[in-house]
Amino acid sequence: MRVLTWNVWWRFGPWEERQSAILKTLADVDADVCLLQEVWATAEQNQAAYLADQLGLQWAWSASPLGGDGSGRIGQDGTDIGLAVLSRWPIVKTEELLLSPTPDVDHRTRTVLHALIDAPDGALPVFTTHLASAPWASAERCAHVRELMPFVVARSQGHQRRPLLAGDFNALPDADETRLLCGHRTAPVVPGVTLVDLWSYAGGDADGHTLVGANPHVRGHGHFGIRIDYLLLGIGAGLGTTGRVLDVRTAGEEPVDGLVPSDHYAVVADLS
């Protein structure tokens, strides 16, 4: 099974040209499950639906409650932003968790999208999210981790396959919120349940940076050369026992027709 997580950068930059580059990259990776962030939608078109149709996949999408361009950052009022799951196999159930607002550090409310996938040999629970982006918002991200972990665990119990949680967490591997999320270097939010960072487990000697200065879309961000996008595999009491990582790598680094697809690189994992 091949799984991908990717922040596809909403409608920033040359978004219409980037759409083709995103599609080409996803087609080349050929993942069975794609967990996406910053996916746009308008009254006329949904990016998740378009990508799924072109790739022959099932799809689910969840809008941010404060979607649209209320911030004026892209000058396109009515353009929603949200999370998406694309799947080679049927999506039999979806659910959304609304995380607590962070009005002091972020311009929108954050969510978690859950999809239960009818994969071969057993249902696969997957989750995608995009936590607060402000560099100083570690406390808010920790608070969101405490909210989302019980949601993840409750919807993952009773299935043979271990759950996958993925997304743009806007947190470095040694940040408080990442350590709390994984539960290895501090007490886990849900006793007896930890999350394995697949890159740390099988990424080899590479740094796995997903926000990189060599990417022309990143140069205006003010910080780069960091790993903030993760694929995490749940292990522990009440969770499934099937699933281990074979390989992890990044994708989306190469320009397509001269254009890098997104400001983030994707993370791709092959699982047994």
Which terms would index this structure?
272 residues, alpha+beta, six-stranded mixed sheet, globular
Brief account:
Helix content is 20%, strand content 32%.
Structural class: alpha+beta
Assembly state (oligomeric): single chain
Distance between the termini: 6 Å
How would a textbook summarize the main sheet? 6 strands, mixed
Give the ordered list of helices and strands. EHEHEEEEEHEHEHEEE
Across the major sheet, the strand order is: 3-4-2-1-12-11
Overall spatial form:
globular
**Computed Rg:** 17 Å
What share of the residues lie within helices? Answer: 10-25%
Tally of contiguous helical segments: 5
Hey, roughly how much beta strand do the residues contain? 25-35%
Poorly predicted spans = none
Provide mean pLDDT, rounded: 91
Number of strands: 12
Task: Describe the protein in words.
By secondary structure, this protein is α+β, with helices and mostly antiparallel strands. The strands form two sheets. Strands 3-4-2-1-12-11 form a six-stranded mixed β-sheet. A six-stranded mixed β-sheet has the order 5-6-7-8-10-9. It contains five helices and twelve strands. The protein is globular and about 45 Å long.
